[in-house]
Amino acid sequence: NAGVTQTPKFQVLKTGQSMTLQCAQDMNHEYMSWYRQDPGMGLRLIHYSVGAGITDQGEVPNGYNVSRSTTEDFPLRLLSAAPSQTSVYFCASSYEPFYGYTFGSGTRLTVV
Amino acid sequence: GQQVMQIPQYQHVQEGEDFTTYCNSSTTLSNIQWYKQRPGGHPVFLIQLVKSGEVKKQKRLTFQFGEAKKNSSLHITATQTTDVGTYFCAGETNAGKSTFGDGTTLTVKP
Questions:
Q1: In angstroms, what is the C-alpha Rg of chain A?
Q2: For B18-32, what is each residue's pLDDT tens digit?
Q3: A33 touches A49 (CB < 8 A)
Q4: Are residues B100 and A106, on separate chains, in Cβ contact within 8 Å?
Q5: For the ranges A5-14, A103-112, B87-96, which has the lowest average pLDDT?
Q6: Which of A101, B64, B81, B102 has the least C-beta neighbours within 10 A?
Q7: What is the pLDDT of residue A27?
Q8: Which pLDDT belongs to residue A13?
Q9: Can you give the three-state secondary structure of chain B, one letter per residue?
Q10: CB-CB: which of A41, A42, A101 is closest to B45?
Q11: What are the φ/ψ torsions at residue B28 (nearest 5 degrees)?
């Protein structure tokens, strides 16, 4: 009964480095999405996927790439980290779009 | 683009007092969801409202969806210290995309 699993929980990157944030769900949810949360702000949608092989951009996609090769996994790639990408990143999934998201526990990313 | 505004940003109450947060959208919503996020935690889904004028209750929490489907509210009766956290609304207009409000952070003084 894992739900949505995000790794790592914490990460420090240097400016210009790249990395992949992992997200996996075991609920057979078709819909998955990535959000970032900055202090005092709500969650902003980065990218989302309505099923394997299908992805689309959200509100703040620049600097991030995603792919969805399986139903279970939806990794988020930072291409060249910048200090502006310091944030908490949440992965979420649901049975269908906007059916009540299950969120992972988050990845706290600091870019120095 | 679509905007979802939440007020107030912060609310401090004495334990036992009531609490209400309001969510307003610039466009008509097909549905709205509410989430609670405890300090240091992740958002947890509370409820979804779909119908115009819908009212749903969960124990001391009452959720309403406006007649025009552009606003919503969450009311907590007789707050407890376990109610502390940030409450977010999220509105959907286009399928597959949702817009979250900035949240209302509730603190409860025992």
A1: 13
A2: 999 999 998 889 899
A3: yes
A4: no
A5: B87-96
A6: B81
A7: 95
A8: 97
A9: CCCEEEECCEEEEECCCCEEEEEEECCCCCEEEEEEECCCCCCEEEEEECCCCCEEEECCEEEEECCCCCEEEEEECCCCHHHCEEEEEEEECCCCCEEECCCEEEEEEC
A10: A101
A11: -70, 135
Mean pLDDT of the region A49-77: 96
Count the Cβ atoms, other than its own, within 10 Å of residue B45.
17
Give the number of other CB atoms < 10 A from CB of residue A92: 28
**Residues B21/B5/B102/A13 CA torsion (nearest 10 deg):** 170
| Nearest Cα residue to B49 out of B68, B72, B19, B28 | B72
Q: Residue A52 carries which side chain, given as an amino acid letter?
A: A
Phi-psi region of A93 (alpha: psi -120 to 50; beta: other; left: phi over 0): beta
How wide is the angle at C-alpha B69 spanned by C-alphas A36 and A43, nearest 5°? 5
Closest to B100 (Cβ–Cβ): which among A42, A56, A99?
Answer: A42
Strands of the B55-58 sheet, one edge to the other: B4-7, B19-25, B71-76, B61-65, B55-58
Calculate the average pLDDT of chain B: 93
- The angle at the Cα of B41, spanning A29 to B90, to the nearest 5 degrees, equals 55
Per-residue three-class SS string for A1-65: CCCEEEECCEEEECCCCCEEEEEEECCCCCEEEEEEECCCCCEEEEEEEEECCEEEECCCCCCEE
